[in-house]
Amino acid sequence: MDTGPHEPRTGELRHIGSLMPKVEKTKSRATERGELMRFFQRHLNYSRKQDGLPALSMPRLGRILEGIPTKDLYYLKSVCTKAKNFSKKFWWEVDPKKHETENPF
Q1: How many CA atoms lie within 13 A of 88 on its CB side?
Q2: 59 occurs within a structural domain
Q3: How does residue 102 score in pLDDT terms, banded at 50, 70 and 90?
Q4: How far apart are CA 105 and CA 84, in angstroms?
Q5: DSSP class of 97
Q6: Structural domain of residue 79, as residue ranges?
Q7: Alpha helices of 1-105 — where are they, by DSSP H?
Q8: In a domain? residue 12
Q9: Do residues 90 and 75 touch, judged by C-beta distance below 8 A?
Q10: How far is Cα of residue 4 from the mean position of the Cα atoms in its chain?
Q11: What's the pTM value of the predicted model, to 2 decimals?
């Protein structure tokens, strides 16, 4: 079936997107620090639930851990994991008042 020189042939051309394979474009937002925060959140919320306290959200935990470098979070993770009471050790280590000396000089 000839449609003439100036008329487009419909039905023969397909969009290039239909010829290309479908690729899932999922950006991984997982970060090293985020994984550590999830670890702490999971462990702390477990004990908080048992004590009848509300769960810690990620933004709240981020605010608590804001000034702590990532390498120190690894140390905190190892210390808390070895402790008998994870939550108690975590809150003691995070509280800066517990680590002050009366007369530093």
Answers
A1: 5
A2: yes
A3: low
A4: 34
A5: G
A6: 32-92
A7: 16-19, 32-50, 58-64, 70-82, 86-94
A8: no
A9: no
A10: 61
A11: 0.66
Q: Which of 20, 16, 19, 61 is nearest to 40 (CA)?
A: 61
Q: Does residue 16 surpass a pLDDT of 90?
A: no
Q: Answer yes or no: is 2 within a domain.
A: no
Half-sphere exposure of 21 (CA within 13 A, CB side): 2
Whole-angstrom Cα distance, residue 22 to residue 16?
12
Is 69 within a domain?
yes
Indicate the pLDDT class of residue 11, thresholds 50, 70 and 90: low
Query: What token pair was written down for 33?
Result: 């620090």
Provide mean pLDDT across the span 26-47.
89
Cα–Cα distance between 90 and 42 in angstroms, integer? 13
What would the two tokens of residue 79 be? 């210390």
Number of folded domains that form the chain: 1
Q: Which residue has the tokens 């003439």?
A: 4
